[in-house]
Amino acid sequence: MRKYIIPLLLSLLITILLYNIPTYGWFWDKNKTIEGEIDGKKETRILRDCDKDIEYQGKAFSLKVNVLDKVDVSGSVEKKKIRDASEVLELLQMQSRELCKDWNAFAVTREEYNEKAEWIRNAFTSFMVIFHSIKLTELEDPNLKKEFLQKLFSWFDDAVNKSDYLKEKFAGTTKHIEQHTRGDQSPAISSGGDINITYGNK
Prior knowledge:
Number of domains: 1
Order of helices and strands: HHEEHHHHHEE
Low-confidence stretches: 10-29, 174-202
Number of helices: 7
Largest sheet: 2 strands, antiparallel
Distance between the termini: 81 Å
Strand order of the largest sheet: 1-2
Mean pLDDT: 74
Strand content: 5-15%
Number of strands: 4
């Protein structure tokens, strides 16, 4: 008897779901649309899954773990700056998720969404470009490590300066990188010159 009951229950469940596709269709439909109103105009949008991991963000965090978390620096300022860069990455991911929710709730226009989404994607992309340009073993070279840190800190400053939220979050922290060089080469990111990276609110 049991062997007949289980298939019957499965058949009944499938029938219920098929007759209620508007309610349960999101299990299959990746392009489910929603209707709402913004700025007094009705609009139809594709519902976005805000909890789904975005591939390019996952790759950025993988690079952070494999490289940034293993960078050996001795100065307290550099250590703090690296921690801040890691936090910016996490905040960007949070902003991406919040932007997705705003999209679904019709709290942002299509233009606002596209502009902010593009900025977040570009921030993640530029982060990955920096990390793809260096190998962990190369960071044992003092000059290559300085070059890497300079790029990372510049990325941090650029990301913060382009976001009002991040500006407020990191208010009072170091935002300016000044490069002092000695020797014949400029910039002195090589074995022939010295470089001191100093920080201040200029």
